[in-house]
Amino acid sequence: MEKQDFNQRVLSGETWADFCDALKEAGELVNAEAAPIDAFTRAEGYRYLTRMLRAGLESFLEFGDSSFPSLRCPVHETIKMGADNPDNYYQSASINPQFDYKITGTRGTVDYLGFGTVINRYSTGGGMKTDGFLDSRDMEIGPDGRLEVIVSQKKQAGNWLPMGPETNSINVRQTFQDRDNETRAEIKMVRVGAEGDRPEPLTPEKLDRALQGAVQFVKNTTGLFEAWAEGFLPTTNEVAPADQNFCQAIGGDPNIYYFHSAWELADDEAMVIEAKSIPECQTWNFVLQNWWMESLDYRHHKIHFNKHTASYEEDGSVKIIVAHQQPDHPNWVETAGHNRGTLCWRWIGAQEHPPVAARVVKFSEL
Questions:
Q1: Coil, helix or strand for 165?
Q2: pLDDT at residue 128, as a whole number
Q3: Rounded CA gap, 328 and 330, in Å?
Q4: Does the global pTM surpass 0.90?
Q5: Which residues pair with 273 in a beta bridge?
Q6: CA-CA distance, 324 to 340, in Å (whole number)?
Q7: Burial, 48: exposed, middle or buried (Cβ in 10 Å; 0-12, 13-18, 19+)?
Q8: Alpha carbons 79 and 85: distance in angstroms, whole number
Q9: Among 36, 243, 348, 355, which is most buried by a count of CB atoms within 10 Å?
């Protein structure tokens, strides 16, 4: 499209009208055939679309310049997607494999810090493929906790995070076991050689392309995870091993083995989840989610446990109770007003991945 065409699209309002029309079309995803049809789930679905829109606008309009990357937090308390982990502090930035980048900062004390370069195709419905990965445990860290990582296609000395010819994004995961007492890594990222440069002002073309990209992100990301949730229905009320290849294809951490399922509980029921064997691992994690694969509101409810926060049985096993009301057990996961949704169990940094059992009982039988 010629530059003049972009100018005219903005001047005529066509850019905005097309964006609004496409956004209205995206709203039909909430009415997916297999999705629950109750008003509560629909309301959460429409809220989910607003959250995906915010994520898309930040990614494509506000932080889409790979010449001046900014490590931002794209998933948090009010933007959630794809079985987000409340123990994580997520960061991402747009990058271009034709450039080299430098990450600097301090390691902090957070239990897990991992860097990944990826081909992010969420906006086209293609998921996310990891090109390169670097675990802080394999990095050179200064005695004062300072770190430096070079991100490039060409191999570098020291801490090197490789890119491929199609890499377009970097993901950083910081996983806490004890948020109250661990300190987050403080890091920033710059393009090598960008000293003194400034980003170009917004243009009609940048606006047009960014709005198109944002709405495609809403449609394709929402569709991807809604279809995934539908795929969990055959294992409802189980903790079933996921297709690990698929998990990696949509951006899963290479250090994690995932379990995903759907769940449904009547008002007088509870789910008892038991991990009889706990392998040697960096940590483990259980999270309760809604139908849209969003973690439930962990700001106000206890909806997840990990290796540090859970209480253990005398034999070293772990029992977790998912229930609408508080049971006589310390590992209570609240349903936060939900009767159905999805769930996720993670073994993180484990060489073995033992099964996790689940059963539904009457609350009165606990």
A1: coil
A2: 82
A3: 7
A4: yes
A5: 320, 358
A6: 11
A7: buried
A8: 12
A9: 348
Q: To which residue do tokens 């944002």 refer?
A: 214
Residue 24 backbone dihedrals phi, psi, to 5 degrees: -60, -40
Superfamily the domain 232-365 falls into: Domain of unknown function DUF1214, C-terminal domain (2.60.120.600)
**Is residue 322 predicted with pLDDT exceeding 90?**
yes
Residue that the structure tokens 């698929």 belong to? 246
Q: What are phi and psi of 173, to 5 degrees?
A: -115, 125
Under the banding of pLDDT at 50, 70 and 90, the label for residue 182 is very high
In terms of Cβ atoms closer than 10 Å to its own Cβ (0-12, 13-18, 19+), residue 125 is: middle
Topology of domain 66-195, CATH: Jelly Rolls (2.60.120)
**Edge-to-edge strand order for the sheet containing 128-135?**
88-94, 169-175, 112-120, 128-135
C-alpha 326, offset from chain centre: 28
Residue 76 DSSP class: B
Using alpha carbons only, what angle is made at residue 90 by residues 273 and 249, rounded to the nearest 5 degrees? 70
Write the pLDDT tens digit of every residue in 244-283.
988 888 778 888 999 999 999 999 999 999 999 999 999 9
pLDDT in tens, 129-138: 889 999 999 9
Q: Which contacts qualify for 29-32: CB closer than 8 Å, 24 or more apart? A: 29/219, 29/222, 29/223, 29/226, 32/226, 32/227, 32/230
Domain positions in the chain are: 1-64+199-224, 66-195, 232-365
Bridge partners of 236? none
Tens digits of residue pLDDT in 56-104: 999 999 999 999 999 999 999 999 999 999 999 999 999 999 999 999 9
Asked whether this chain's domains 66-195 and 232-365 adopt the same fold, the reply is yes
Q: Which phi-psi region, left, alpha or beta, contains residue 105 (left: φ > 0; alpha: ψ -120 to 50)?
A: left
Residue 126: pLDDT above 90? no
* 249 within 8 A of 270, measured Cβ to Cβ: no
148, 102 Cβ separation under 8 angstroms: yes
